[in-house]
Amino acid sequence: MSILLFLIPITILLGFLGVMAFLWTIKTKQYDDLEGSANRILFDEDLKKKKKIKNENS
Amino acid sequence: MLLNKTHKENISSDEPTLRSEFVSNSQSKSSSPMGRVGGGKNFFCLHCGNFTNDQFCCLGCETAYKIINEMGLSNYYESRIIDEKTRKIKPDNFEKIENIEDFIKEENGKFEIFLAVDGLHCAACVWLIESILQKQNNVILARLNLSKKYLRIVWQSQKELIKDYIKIINEIGYKLYPFDELILAEQEKKYNNDLVKCLAVAGFGAGNVMLFSSILWFSNLNLIGQATIDLMHFASAMIALPVIAYAARPFFKSAAISIKSRSFNMDVPIAVAIFLACTVSLIESFNSAKHVYFDSAVMLIFFLLIGRYLDFRARKKAFDIAKEFSILSANFARLIENDNNIKIIATKNIKKDMFLLVVAGDKIPADAIIIEGESEIDNSIITGETLPKKVINGDKVYAGAINLSLPIKIKVEKNHDQSLLSEIVKIVENAESQKNKFVKIADKIARSYTPIVHLVAFATFSLWYFFLDSGFENALLNATAVLIITCPCALALAVPIAQTITISNLIKRGILAKSGEALEKINEVEVIIFDKTGTLTAGKPKLINILGLNKNLNEEEKDFYLMLAASLAKYSSHPLSASLVASNLQNTIDLKVTEEQGFGLSSIYDHKILKLGKKDFVLILNDSIPFQFSNQAHEFKGEAEQMYFSTCASQDPQNLCASFEKWNGMTKCYFKFGDDEILFLFEDRLKSDASDVIQKLKLLNKEIILLSGDNKIIVEETAKTLGITEFYFEKTPLEKMEFLKSLNKKIMMIGDGINDAPALALSDVSVSFCKAANIAQNTADIVLWGEKLSPILDIFSITKQQFKIIKENLAIALIYNLLAVPFAIMGYVTPLIAAIAMSSSSILVLLNSLRLLKK
Q1: Across the interface, do A51 and B200 touch by the CB < 8 Å criterion?
Q2: ipTM exceeds 0.85, yes or no
Q3: What was the pLDDT predicted at B649?
């Protein structure tokens, strides 16, 4: 049963990390535009590529 | 792609002026005017999607199309879906936002701005706007929030660059408004995030505590030993206590407020139960006891927060949509500066003695006096009067009225906070505080439930302590078990789940319910009060008759003249023109039209002069028809009147006088084609479903009252047509409010004007329309998306189902409590049983509520 002494802190730590990750997503406003994000994945790739090129240039 | 290229080539070779001449030439060749209806074929404009006779409806669209193609973004046209409800992306002369600098935030050499976007149809629009901005120099980030319809641009180098960015977005047809992020109701947002955070933490706690509890649920002392049990208890405490301290704050806060105001709500027993459960469990853990209730407490909070979050989200969704309307109809005014430059300023910055320009179609931004120009003013939103009022130099105009025909220069008389509109805002706020206090169903139950629960818990404690001599600890433990098991978990979920589903059902039908409370109140409504203008009627003129002034017209001729008039009218933004265009079902022809601002339109067709507009303008060359309006029915001299009244008299001779008054109440528009003189008659028509809705509401045993600011004749006529026996006319906003007070019944008020706002605020349930005045919309509990009235029937039927489900839910929750309490009193409720009972009743309530989805 002494294994519990290790496992309990580990479970709590893992759970804690999960909550922290979730709170981070809230803080960075990832739920602000659910409608837009759902569609954004369908946008053409060239947008991102051009952006990259531009960044390299600048 | 091929298609796009060909169009593109066409553009460069085709000049717009050439095209229109070509069109008019081909028409003048046509010999018989009656035989030919309509110009060329109909296309959709390649850019904005409007009906047009050519590839593009205007030069603006053509330029926009070029810009988009040049940037290699023509994919946009293939992937977009045009939303008919939204403004077409037609580039217009959007006014410049002069004081844009005030809205820019500066940080580390980077600039940031938020702009509200009007004209978003679908995700393709998002892509287009973002792509175009990304291609501009110095733009670091351009992100459009589709849910909230605002655009965030971050750029570097120069502040002024924003003007270029705005210009290009305007050029492709989207309208931008400066957008103060503070409008986003920060308070609301914070509450939301806070609630989500609490929910997340509670969810984490519930899951992890259960991990340890499950060991305790399914084993016993002999199997794992007291030391392990204690370890589990302390591990649970380690998670549960911080989690509860964080996640239960909303309940503790609410309970504290409720105790202070001495009106118990549901949160009081919740807070007491959680607090007791934690304290007792902590003591028990130190005493190496068998049972602790940390898991029950955390689970309880988790379930309750779900209910609370659902409730909040549903309201927020409706609230967001409603807010969108008010942001897009943002309040800006055109300030005339000393050097005669026009600057756009926010309405709130209007000061006394400023000079403002109000162009046709604009809302008048402040109470003011006209110092230059004359025009017609639509007061319907302020007073409920249907007919436009003519105003000249020196007349007073009030904030909220709409300028219909000509630009006017006005001098502001009162600061923004003293204007008539602001006065009404104050009355509204006052009325809201006078509103009958409504107690939510859940709180109503809580009021009687809380004392009973606490009494039972106390009785349990006394029973064990005094009569069964079981010792203080055991007695307290059993009392806590009673509190936990009676904790209104299912009760707290019963109402919000049903309301959440109902609100989303309503949204699907174009009904935005801003508060769950209003939905609960609908069932008690006894009286329904309607405003007239804009509520029962469309609020805008509709063509009802076409009369020939110098000859009788047959149907074919009527259609022909209507088509000609509509061909002229499509070049004007006057409401009567819009009505003519809407009434015309045939193809219009392209004409070279000259507009004489405020008087009318003229053109030449088939070598004859066409004129459309005011009497003086159209009939000026022909004085042979004397038009004299008099109050005596027998003194008519105008032929049109005689013709009109001879038809009325033959149908209903008794009613000649009433018809005469109706005649005066009608809006008229004159039209001349060669020698033919035509009169178009307009009337503010009842909405198509008004009479049907009134009849059905009567069947629901509701009392119907018509309460209007309009004059007696029009109101009487409307009431008669609709079969409303109780009606009141010429009521000021305050009189409307007083009337509602005097009724002393449960009232549903439906209205759209500024003059309705106080009455809306005072009524138990208030309904408004999305095109209503901002203040009416903000005050209303329920906003209807379209213009139709039939959603009101939906509101009644949907909330009736909802009420039934809520009742069932409450019954389930109460029955569960009745069954469980005896066991708790007897001390049989272990944490495992509490957990099962709690979750099973919650799931039952949830499943029952889901039945609403099917309907």
Answers
A1: no
A2: no
A3: 45
